[in-house]
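in:
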């Protein structure tokens, strides 16, 4: 078994309809992608699993869906307007632009290979700008949010009050963010439009270290629980010069991507930076009042911030397996059942009406519970191969014996083992395995 390359994964993603380039019929625009029928299911499942573990299964975290467009003051208070930049250098020889801190050799242009040709680094602003309303004036300037987190901080008091929350508690949000990245790339890894899954956990300052350690473990285990290979995951603390302007300590959960280890999720101790800044800029008192001690203070914040699109990509890479079966190579996506786009495929052995009828009836019954694909084209072998390649855990074959014994053959994606199951037990059989 060889490890998949970036090209293998991006080809599969395009061929099977997981991901397409945005505006492809016009030649495509760089760094924005469209999630096709399978990709949107996988991405939704990743986000739903995050929401289930971070919000549904806990009594100390609530959810939020805040607006992408926010007052410009939000980004002035948060520090983004001033410092959310990356160092940009331009090669005097070939005019290519690069992000200095991501270059392997900061003196050599990776595009033309020349050394000593870079201009002085300039801070390049990462926030997309636009104007609110019909007039393109400076007063109407607003930004597309570069992180979902600020919507949480500006709603801190609304949510605390309306939900009568006591420390420690968290607010979770999933949604789009935008960054005008200097060097987007590696397929959907670094894009200019992407989705984040972020949670701000508010704690007393003296408990911050404990919660920081707690969230590292919780988040690491989340990836393992969804089947990610442990040896492909690691936690890397940031060096002091890597820290974001708001952070007093950050670790990254990194994945071993085909090119190298790279960030999947950041877990930061943002101290009381954000609430303090918003209180100062807005004039609204955002301190927490502790009734027991009669004290008012700014809580600290521990923030696990993951990329939904990037995580989806990592799950796709991790699930990809090529294996030899009877001298043939079989490609399988061994996605965790909860992440697989389709849970069950219904495959009538022939296109004859007598098989299509029962196959449709089974499909419409199972659809009430799971995403199901009814596939009637091509040979059964090719259809199995397609389902393996898109990660469908179970394939149900309706054959001519079905007409006699009211039973179907259920094939398991990973073991390829087949069971004969009576139709009236099928829901229970699949339920036991899919949950
Ligand atoms: N609120 C903190 C924050 O935004 P970050 O480390 O800049 O922290 C969190 O972003 C996560 O968002 C990253 O770990 C990554 O998974 C994802 N992310 C950031 N920039 C991205 C981009 N350009 N494309 C895809 N995902 C991105």
């Amino acid at each position: 078994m060889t490890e998949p390359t970036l090209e293998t994964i991006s080809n599969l993603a395009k061929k099977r309809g997981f991901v397409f380039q945005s505006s492809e019929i016009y030649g495509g625009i760089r760094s924005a992608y469209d999630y096709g029928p399978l990709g949107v299911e996988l991405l939704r499942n990743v986000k739903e699993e995050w929401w289930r573990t971070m919000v549904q299964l806990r009594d100390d975290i609530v959810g939020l869906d805040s607006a992408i467009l926010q007052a410009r003051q939000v980004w002035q208070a948060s520090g983004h307007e001033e410092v959310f930049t990356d160092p940009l250098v331009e090669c005097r020889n070939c005019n290519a632009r690069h992000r200095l801190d991501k270059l392997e050799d900061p003196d050599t242009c990776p595009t033309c290979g020349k050394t000593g040709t870079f201009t002085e680094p300039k801070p390049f602003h990462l926030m997309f700008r636009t104007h609110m309303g019909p007039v393109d004036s400076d007063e109407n300037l607003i930004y597309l949010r570069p992180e979902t987190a600020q919507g949480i901080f500006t709603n801190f008091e609304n949510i605390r009050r309306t939900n009568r929350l006591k420390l420690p508690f968290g607010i979770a949000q999933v949604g789009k963010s935008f960054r005008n990245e200097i060097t987007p790339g590696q397929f959907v890894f670094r894009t200019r439009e992407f989705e984040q899954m972020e949670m701000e956990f508010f704690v007393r300052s003296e408990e911050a270290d404990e919660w920081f350690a707690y969230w590292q473990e919780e988040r690491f285990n989340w990836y393992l629980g969804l089947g990610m290979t442990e040896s492909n995951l690691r936690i890397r603390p940031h060096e002091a010069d890597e820290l974001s302007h708001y952070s007093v300590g950050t670790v990254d959960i990194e994945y071993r991507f085909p090119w190298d280890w790279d960030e999947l999720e950041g877990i930061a101790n943002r101290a009381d930076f954000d609430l303090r800044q918003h209180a100062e800029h807005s004039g609204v008192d955002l301190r927490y009042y502790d009734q027991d001690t009669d004290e008012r203070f700014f809580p600290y914040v521990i923030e696990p911030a993951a990329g939904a699109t990037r995580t989806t990509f990592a799950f796709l890479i991790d699930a990809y397996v090529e294996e030899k079966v009877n001298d043939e190579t079989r490609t399988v996506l061994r996605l965790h059942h909860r992440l697989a786009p389709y849970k069950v495929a219904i495959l009538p052995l022939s296109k004859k009406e007598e098989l299509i009828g029962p196959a449709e009836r089974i499909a419409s019954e199972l659809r009430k519970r799971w995403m199901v694909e009814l596939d009637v084209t091509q040979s059964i072998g090719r259809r199995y191969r397609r389902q393996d390649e898109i990660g469908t855990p179970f394939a149900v074959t309706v054959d001519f014996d079905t007409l006699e014994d009211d039973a179907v053959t259920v094939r398991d994606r990973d073991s390829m083992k087949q069971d004969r199951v009576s139709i009236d037990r099928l829901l229970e059989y699949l339920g036991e395995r899919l949950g």
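note: The chain has two domains: 6-68+149-317, 342-434.
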